[in-house]
């Protein structure tokens, strides 16, 4: 995309797609999808741009075209960078973590239910 005018953009992994991404009407991704989603926050131009789902091998580059008039902050987990001129986002696949959830409730099943609920609205 050449130019996006919005209040922000949310780049989300599958694990994050059921939280903040859902609140900005972005897609819910399956945990094994190997995708990341890009969702606009209050997009002005292009109007009604719904965002995009891309491969987790993608490199996303965000360039602030007018940093003196419109400062940009980038936040990842609890780390924030203010007044960014250029942001490069890519997935670090070497990081491993344990995902904790109730073993009596299938996480995949909950994600599928949320995906179906979103499609019906």
Give the spatial strand order of the biggest sheet.
1-2-3
**Cα distance spanning the termini:** 27 Å
Structural class: alpha+beta
So how many helices? 2
Describe this structure in words.
There is one protein chain. The chain is an alpha+beta fold and 121 residues long. The chain is 15% helix and 31% strand. It contains 2 helices and 7 strands, in the order βαββββββα. Strands 1-2-3 form a 3-stranded antiparallel sheet, with no helix packed on it.
Topology:
Blueprint (H helix, E strand, L loop, with lengths): L4 E8 L7 H4 L11 E11 L6 E4 L4 E4 L10 E3 L2 E3 L4 E4 L17 H14 L1
Can I get a quick summary?
This protein has two helices and seven strands, in the order βαββββββα.
List keywords for this structure.
alpha+beta, 121 residues, 2 helices, 31% strand, two-stranded antiparallel sheet, 3-stranded antiparallel sheet
């Amino acid at each position: 995309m050449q130019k996006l005018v919005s209040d922000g953009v949310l780049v989300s992994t599958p694990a994050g797609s059921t939280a903040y991404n859902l609140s900005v009407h972005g897609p819910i991704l399956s945990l094994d999808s190997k995708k990341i989603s890009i969702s606009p926050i209050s997009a002005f131009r292009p109007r009604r741009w719904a965002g995009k789902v891309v491969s987790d091998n993608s490199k996303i580059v965000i360039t602030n075209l007018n940093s003196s008039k419109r400062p940009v902050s980038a936040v990842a987990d609890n780390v924030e960078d203010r007044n960014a001129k250029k942001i490069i986002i890519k997935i670090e696949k070497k990081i491993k973590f344990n995902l904790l959830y109730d073993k009596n409730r299938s996480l995949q099943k909950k994600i599928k239910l949320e995906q179906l609920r979103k499609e019906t609205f």
